[in-house]
Structures are given as structure tokens and as C-alpha cells.
Amino acid sequence: MNLNIEENYPQAIQKWKEEIADTYDSFAKNKDFDLDLDFYVFQSSVQFAPPLLMIGANPGEGKSYSEFNKSNNRDRRTANDLGYDSNQFLANQQWHSRSLCNLFSGEKLLPMFENAVITNVAYFNTSNFVELKRRKSAREAINFSRKCNKELINILQPKNIILLGKVPLDELRIFFDEPEIPILKTRDEKTILIRQTSINGIPTFCIHHPSRNTEFNTGENLEIKKKKLEQIL
């Protein structure tokens, strides 16, 4: 590992957070953008060289940024107010995250999951990604966030990247070193359970979104995914 990257990590991640906070604050306050939505980046603590960097679509809910700021007696979110200090999937079973917690359980995978950095393709809160995309100027914000995800990978230097569902697979495909390939399918060979590629040489795996596609996140399909991940991570 490049020691200079690790030494420069504190300054690099702080500068990255400041750009996110400033740009998203500008997006949310621009009355021409229809993006008066609260935002945050991390659903976990953040550290250099995590065992996993997990990337979903965007945070849930749909809080108004202006109203949230007013209710919290503040003008804006800052670089030091962009997320949580612990794994929110483990802390909030009501997030429909039980399948992900079950997948990343056991002697090998649970410690990796506990120390994962968890983020999203885009950082605005909406009920789902489609609802975000309907907003005026959403594509500008999504494209900015996509660039920031690539920069985050360069800063964090994760050991592995896990893409949670089709949205991060589609949005981040432009950064893949090579086209993704299926490495695990259902027993009937009809559905892909895990795809693999790499970003900057970092092993990258795409699995079904944990809060949807119940058939592929429970039972035998969950068990064979878990076994495969234990082998390759």
C-alpha cells in the first residue's frame, strides 16, 4: 500500500467532505433545481482501507432541507455533519436490512460488515431513486455524486467494493476496469446472484438490493451467496 496515500488520508477525506457539503448545500438551496431535500453521505463510520466499501442508491425518506435546518436551528449541513458513527444497517433492523445482516454474518463476514464504510450513489433523501431522478436538475446532482464516489474510492482504498443493487451497478459502470461477469447464479441458472468486476484494481461485487427481491435475499439463495462471499472476500 502506498504510505503517502495513508499519510494524506485525513486531509484528503476532509477536503472531500467539504466539497460535498458545499456543493449539496448549493444544490438544495437553488430554487431553480427543485432539490430542497436533506442529504447525508455515510451510513457508517469512515476509515482508511476498510474491508468493505458498500454503495447503495440513496438515503431513504424525503425531508426538506430548509425545514430540517430550521427545526435544528442551523443554516446548513457542514463537512462534519454528513453521516453516522456506526453501521446503520446493524443498528436499524427496521430499514428492511435483515437480509443484508444475515448475509454478512458469521465468523468471517460479520467483522468485515461491522467495519464497512457504507455510502450511496447519490446523497439526497428520497423515498427511492426513481423519485430523485424525477426532480429537476437531479441528473446534475447524480453526476456530481458519481464523480465523488470515484474520488472516495481513491481516498479510502477499500479492500473490496460491494454494490447494493442495480442503481449503483448502472451508475458506476463507467468506472469498471472491465465488464462485470456473473460468478454466482440461482440453482436454475436463470438469475444472477453475484456479479464481479473491479474499480482501480479493487475487487467489486454487485448483489441484489437488500430491501427488495425477497426471493434472491432469503433461503437457499441467501445461503449460497453467503458461502460464495466467504470464499472470495
Task: Explain what you see.
This protein is α/β, with parallel strands linked by helices. It is 42% helix and 13% strand. The chain has nine helices and six strands. The chain has helices spanning 3-29, 65-71, 88-91, 98-103, 106-114, 129-133, 138-156, 166-172, 219-232, and strands at 53-56, 117-120, 161-164, 181-185, 192-199, 202-207. It has a six-stranded mixed β-sheet with strand order 2-1-3-6-5-4. A hairpin with a 6-residue loop joins strand 4 and strand 5. The longest helix has 27 residues, at 3-29. The radius of gyration is 18 Å and the shape is globular. The protein starts with a helix and ends with a helix. This is Uracil-DNA glycosylase-like domain-containing protein.
